[in-house]
Amino acid sequence: MNDKITRRRLAAAALGSAAALHAASRQAPAPAIPLDLNAAKEQGRKYSETLAKFDLPMSTEPAFQFKA
Amino acid sequence: MADFTDDIFFATITELNAKLKAREFSPVELVRAFAQRLEQLGPRYNALALPLTGPAIKRAKDVDKELKRERTRGLLQGIPFGAKDLLSTAGQPTTWGARPYADQVFDYDAAVLQKLDKTGAVLIGKLAMVELAGGGGYNIAGASMFGPGLNPWDRTRWSGGSSSGSGSAVAAGLVPFAIGSETSGSILTPAAFCGITGLRPTYGLVSRYGAMALSWTMDKLGPMCHSAEDCGLVLAAIAGSDANDPGSAHKSFYYTPQYYRPPKDLRIGYAPVDFAERADASARPAFEQALAAIRETGAQLIETRLPDLPYGALTSTIIVAEACSIFEPLIASGKVDQLADPKQIAGLKAGLEISAQDYLKAMRIRTIVQQKIRRLFTEVDILLAPSRMGPAPKADEPLDHRPPESTAPKDLGLSALIPAGNLAGIPALSLPCGFASGLPVAIQLAGPPFSENVLLAMGKEFQTRTDWHRKRPKVE
């Protein structure tokens, strides 16, 4: 189940209008999600869980301005 | 007019340069011979993206004139080469291997091509690649608008990716050397599967200006050649500071292996489990022989292993998150559906959901990876492992086709050296080391940042003791 807030949903919610929600759903008819997309999302969730389990010192900064 | 035999088509840069100097043939003759061969045989391996025969011969005529005036520019002068089709060439299509970009044309040359042009090397063609360098996570050899990269040693096998055309073109003697790119394995893998020598330089050593961006923090460009020495010569030509590349390390590189420590003074870390248990059974004899050859150099072999870190989750999260930002317009427009591999399409679409929290967590853990790998290099000078655990897979099978997990040993050894090395930004050199089931296999040497000369010196030493890099596939 995809419960992410998309820009369309956000716009619809901001307008507070059932009509806007209806229009959003009309513009983007929900296609049958292909198997590959579900598998890719599931893989992403697994990676997310793996990363979440990793304890880091608070002082660890991301490798921005990356240099080898 | 020289008789162009296989001895010329499979010659190293140094050998070709000696023949040019001896006037056995002119640069125009050499360029024409290779360009015709690339045009004729490149499609056989789905290796050719775009022939550049006309402009190449024109350029070779200029080089001819220079040589007649005795204006010499070094060993690459008059040597033909190919470039992965993610490098922009002014006025010519640059497709990134992907159908949505089939008509893309830039008005400037990539920095590496400008640098090679200054040495007098002559670009004879753009080489095929996996679409978008495989950023969405591909699972079929056919993930390219050029079709599956086919291996010159056996056309039912994959050439490796994502620098598939660069690997097969060098292996089949269609170009003396090629430029490939690596984000996580895209130079080392095709080099290993095709039986050639490939060098992944330190992150930032070679400018990526004019190259397709897949992952700003992980993309590297490097040479794919017939020998370690050739890799050194090409790296010396393409390395160096570039203000146009925000990731530039602002370092130069001079190929001087003679000034580096001899093998007997080197400590080489390896994990016996990689060679004896993790490698495919068919490849173990070749890997054992390679290990013996390294030992014979006098180097001290030390058992080691990589720190236990989630390399797969890190590389995937970072690459996909950055790729999805780069290719957001492609995904949002729906043109992403024109890609050849459904897994890539799905991977890029799903990647838009990677949260900032996950990306930042991955980049923070990456800092730990760098620190721990740096610490590992206080204990050893070089890490040694199989480049890939076995030979090239079949081109018509899913690439994630694996033997049952239960057979894999728990000790991971250095098996994650490709993702770990790419996360840490360290250099690595893939060296052919024998055959398994008639297909090439290879070892890799990885070192600390900017240790290319150490790796190349060791690679050269290995290649003086073995002749695997001189083996040629039957090309018809």
SSE order and pairing:
The complex is a heterodimer of chains A (68) and B (476).
Chain A: H1 7-15, H2 18-27, H3 35-53
Chain B: H1 6-9, H2 13-21, H3 27-41, E1 48-51, H4 53-68, E2 80-84, H5 111-119, E3 122-127, E4 150-151, E5 154-158, H6 164-171, E6 178-182, H7 188-194, E7 197-200, E8 220-225, H8 228-238, E9 267-270, H9 272-278, H10 284-296, E10 300-303, H11 311-326, H12 328-333, H13 342-351, H14 356-379, E11 382-386, H15 417-424, E12 428-436, E13 439-446, H16 452-465
Parallel strand pairs in B: 2-3, 2-6, 9-10, 9-11
Antiparallel strand pairs in B: 1-3, 4-5, 6-8, 7-8, 7-12, 11-13, 12-13
Gap from first CA to last CA of chain A: 40 Å
Largest interface pair: A-B, 25 and 41 residues
Question: If you consult CATH, what is the topology of the largest domain in chain B?
Answer: Amidase signature (AS) enzymes
Strand-residue proportion of chain B? 5-15%
Q: What Rg of chain A do the Cα atoms give?
A: 19 Å
| Multimeric organization | heterodimer
Query: So how many helices of chain A?
Result: 3
H-E string of chain A: HHH
Classify the helix fraction of chain A into a percent range: 55-70%
Q: Please tell me how large the radius of gyration of chain B is.
A: 21 Å
Binned, the helix content of chain B reads 25-40%
Strand order of the largest sheet of chain B: 1-3-2-6-8-7-12-13-11-9-10
Strand content of chain A: under 5%
Order of helices and strands of chain B: HHHEHEHEEEHEHEEHEHHEHHHHEHEEH
Q: Assign an overall shape of chain B.
A: globular
CATH class of the largest domain in chain B: Alpha Beta
The CATH superfamily of the largest domain in chain B is identified as: Amidase signature (AS) domain
Q: What structural class do the secondary elements of chain A suggest? A: mainly alpha
